[in-house]
Design brief:
The chain is α+β, with helices and mostly antiparallel strands. The chain is 32% helix and 12% strand. The N and C termini lie far apart (43 Å).
């Protein structure tokens, strides 16, 4: 079974670094050379670029500024593999990442090895905590890109009429029947966000911890299944403007949405395992926030807020399908927590600059590396995005 990454929990930092970096390279072993430059749309990136960018992160934020005498790659490389860090310098246009046939892959892999060796040597010198914190951030950043690499690859493969498969044992969402019914929660004053007493890693957008007031609510025990979503489709849900937000309705018409992103005719579904029969009991996936919201309205329900989702996991730690299944859309816009302050410098661009025009997703997916999930994690995408492994869970008032 191909895995996104070994767990990094309770593992020494040097070992974490080695395991995660090796796992990224393992993800490209099933690919043909031609696949490494595959970029199906502007929002996606080729596998080759993901491997280079995660190395760029360590190069730019650790080795170049903090290791005197470090000889990095040719300067243009740092332009080619910058993602969105404006204060770190110029960037190659994102839609043109698939055109970067050079530098060749062998040189990029050699660069990765040089960077890894330098970081491991540095760790033997017991660097100060700010440096180890940056290395940890680089590890977590690379795990995010492991999931993105597979998501982007699925998008690219889906555009090929040959329906190529990534691997016959590629990760897939569990298809056990979702539990029926719902959990009830009393509401009240609740603490949200990263506990400052916790020693575990967190991204800056998970802090500071603060209190919120919640009215009583109910949350479905399981995620909405393919069969349940098909009932919405067959009932004309995609053609009923009363169920849709105005922006979502306009996008649905423009892009002619009539089903989730990778559904195909004859109840087939495209996946990293190629074209497969769609499993009725599997959770519906690759839907936008607009589709999730429309389905919830059709079902007489709503999407939970991210605060409701987090408190539900606090009070119901074994909430079915909370982690390792699909990211779950919430009804919360992505914004800063009260008292949030981004880090100084380019690192501050990691999360804070995206706190507009996005919706929050909670949980984790079957593509999320092990050890990279927690109840306070705030993922975010624009409401029209459908290529990420996202589904939905229903909520009700009272």
């Amino acid at each position: 079974m191909i895995s996104c990454s070994p767990t990094a929990v309770q593992t020494p930092l040097g070992e974490q670094l080695h395991l995660v970096r090796a796992a990224s390279e393992a993800l490209i072993t099933p690919l043909e050379p031609e696949d490494l430059l595959l970029q199906g749309m502007a929002d996606a990136s080729p596998p080759k670029w993901h491997l280079a960018h995660t190395t760029w992160f360590f190069e730019t934020f650790l080795l170049k500024p903090h290791r005197p005498g470090w000889q990095g790659p040719p300067e243009p490389w740092l332009v080619l593999f910058n993602s969105y860090y404006e204060s770190a310098g110029p960037r190659h246009p994102r839609p043109q990442r698939g055109l970067l046939s050079r530098p060749p892959m062998r040189e990029l892999l050699a660069w990765r090895q040089r960077v890894d060796g330098a970081l491991q040597l540095w760790l033997t010198e017991a660097p100060a905590k700010p440096i180890t914190d940056l290395i940890q951030l680089g590890i977590e950043h690379e795990q995010q890109h492991q999931e993105l690499l597979l998501m982007d690859l699925l998008d690219g493969f889906s555009r090929n009429p040959l329906d190529p498969l990534y691997a016959s044992d590629a990760p897939t969402a569990p298809c056990e029947p979702s539990q029926t019914g719902c959990f009830s929660f009393e509401g009240g004053l609740a603490a949200i966000g990263h506990n400052p007493l916790s020693q575990g890693f967190h991204f800056d957008n998970e802090a500071p911890q603060h209190r919120v007031w919640l009215e009583p609510w109910r949350l479905s025990k399981g995620l909405v299944s393919n069969a349940e979503f098909e009932a919405f489709q067959l009932d004309g849900g995609y053609n009923n403007p009363l169920l849709w937000m105005a922006e979502g309705w306009a996008i649905r018409q423009q892009r002619q949405w009539q089903a989730p992103r990778y559904w195909r005719a004859d109840r087939m579904e495209f996946s990293l395992r190629g074209l497969q029969p769609r499993q009725p009991t599997a959770p519906v996936q690759h839907i936008s926030w607009f589709e999730a919201d429309a389905y919830a309205r059709w079902a007489g329900a709503r999407l939970p807020t991210e605060m409701e989702w987090e408190v539900a996991v606090q009070q119901q730690p074994d909430l079915p399908q909370a982690f390792g299944c699909l990211w779950q859309w919430t009804n919360s816009a992505y914004g800063p927590y009260p008292g949030y302050k981004p880090a100084m410098g380019a690192i501050g661009e990691y999360n804070g600059k995206f706190m507009s025009s996005q919706m929050v997703l909670r949980g984790s997916s079957f593509l999320t590396p092990r050890g990279h999930s927690r109840s306070t994690y705030r993922n975010f995408f624009a409401p029209a995005c459908r290529w990420q492994a996202a589904g939905l869970r229903l909520a009700w008032d009272g």
